[in-house]
């Protein structure tokens, strides 16, 4: 008897997030350098009479349990495309911060696609899953892929990137989340409003940043992050000024680089090794500028059955 299929899915940080013009469809063209890290959600799909979602872990009370949940939409989309009844119990065990700028909701959708495909035996190949993922959200394809990748278009058109060795990170988790659409709107507002935001130049990946990833060089990656960084960071800081103190605390404590992760409010710090990561996590937690701090590494593999 099948009891369930569990999929582990990584969080991401954007080592570069170049935000281009506001498009007529309300999205922005991006040059988005995704990097998967070792914080994971686990999504379990088990047989059920109807589509049902439960959630556990930190921030679970903030996760919607109705059909608006992106994992539920993923299950329903796969079912509809294969003429399968959308009947499954999805349990999401959260470890990725909710609404934290680390693609937790996208991870759960990617996990649901893979878990339901295995549970139902729909036999969708990788290309079909990536296509369904792109329909669900800009970051969902990368949650399937993992590793590191350049995302073009609204972030869904992926090219895998070579990475040498491992990079060490500390994530400062904030109280409460930030809404991604609100952060993009604030970015447009800071750029002078709608007509001006539509005239922004096309975004491009920074060659020095791609070379630092391929060369496994943390000091070079830190310099590239400082130079090209995250175009959503000013917007996240505008909506949540206290994040400036978090970034300052991490940099003062010796982080090689500090950056708001995606649309925030999680802050990501690059450090040189495991020991530096553990020390920085302790210093950040003692600083009172974050709810908790987590040391981890990447690149991490994409969604996979465990
Ligand atoms: O694709 P996803 O559903 O994750 O996007 C959430 C919101 O983030 C969009 O509705 C849009 O407001 C904003 N967004 C954007 N440009 C992108 C990706 C997301 O403006 N490339």
Automatic annotation (TrEMBL):
Residues 69-147 form the GHMP kinase N-terminal domain. Its EC number is 2.7.1.148. Keywords: ATP-binding, Isoprene biosynthesis, Kinase, Nucleotide-binding, Transferase. The active site is at 12, 139. It is an enzyme of class 2 (transferase). InterPro entries: GHMP_kinase_C_dom, GHMP_kinase_C_sf, GHMP_kinase_N_dom, IspE, Ribosomal_Su5_D2-typ_SF, Ribsml_uS5_D2-typ_fold_subgr. ATP binds at residues 97-107. Residues 210-284 form the GHMP kinase C-terminal domain. Pathway: Isoprenoid biosynthesis; isopentenyl diphosphate biosynthesis via DXP pathway; isopentenyl diphosphate from 1-deoxy-D-xylulose 5-phosphate: step 3/6. GO terms for biological process: isopentenyl diphosphate biosynthetic process, methylerythritol 4-phosphate pathway; terpenoid biosynthetic process. It catalyses: 4-CDP-2-C-methyl-D-erythritol + ATP = 4-CDP-2-C-methyl-D-erythritol 2-phosphate + ADP + H(+). One of its GO terms (molecular function) is 4-(cytidine 5'-diphospho)-2-C-methyl-D-erythritol kinase activity. Belongs to the GHMP kinase family. IspE subfamily. PANTHER family: 4-DIPHOSPHOCYTIDYL-2-C-METHYL-D-ERYTHRITOL KINASE, CHLOROPLASTIC. Catalyzes the phosphorylation of the position 2 hydroxy group of 4-diphosphocytidyl-2C-methyl-D-erythritol. This is 4-diphosphocytidyl-2-C-methyl-D-erythritol kinase. The gene is ispE.
């Amino acid at each position: 008897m099948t009891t369930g299929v569990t999929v582990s899915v990584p969080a991401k940080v954007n080592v570069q997030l170049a935000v281009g013009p506001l498009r007529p469809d309300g999205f922005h063209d991006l040059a988005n350098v995704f990097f998967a890290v070792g914080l994971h959600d686990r999504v379990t799909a088990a047989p059920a009479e109807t589509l049902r979602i439960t959630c556990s872990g930190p921030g679970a009370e903030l996760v919607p349990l109705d059909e608006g949940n992106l994992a539920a939409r993923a299950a329903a989309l796969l079912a509809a495309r294969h003429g399968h009844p959308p009947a499954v119990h999805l349990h999401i065990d959260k470890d990725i911060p909710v609404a934290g700028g680390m693609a937790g909701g996208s991870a759960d959708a990617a996990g649901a696609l893979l878990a339901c495909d295995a549970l139902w035996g729909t036999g969708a190949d990788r290309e079909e899953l990536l296509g369904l993922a792109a329909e669900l959200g800009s970051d969902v394809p990368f949650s399937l892929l993992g590793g590191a990748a350049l995302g073009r278009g609204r972030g869904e058109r992926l090219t895998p990137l070579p990475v040498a060795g491992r990079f060490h990170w500390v994530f400062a988790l904030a109280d409460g989340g930030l809404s991604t659409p609100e952060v993009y709107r604030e970015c447009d507002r800071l750029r002078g409003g709608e007509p001006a935001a539509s005239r922004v130049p096309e975004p491009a990946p920074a060659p020095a940043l791609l070379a630092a990833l391929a060369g496994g060089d943390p000091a070079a990656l830190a310099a590239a992050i400082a130079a090209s960084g995250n175009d959503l960071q000013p917007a996240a800081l505008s909506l949540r000024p206290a994040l400036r103190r978090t970034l300052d605390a991490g940099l003062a404590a010796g982080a090689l680089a500090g950056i708001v992760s995606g649309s925030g409010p999680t802050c990501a710090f690059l450090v040189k090794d495991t020991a530096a990561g553990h020390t920085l996590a302790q210093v950040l937690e003692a600083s009172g500028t974050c709810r908790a701090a987590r040391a981890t590494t990447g690149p991490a593999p994409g969604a996979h059955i465990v």
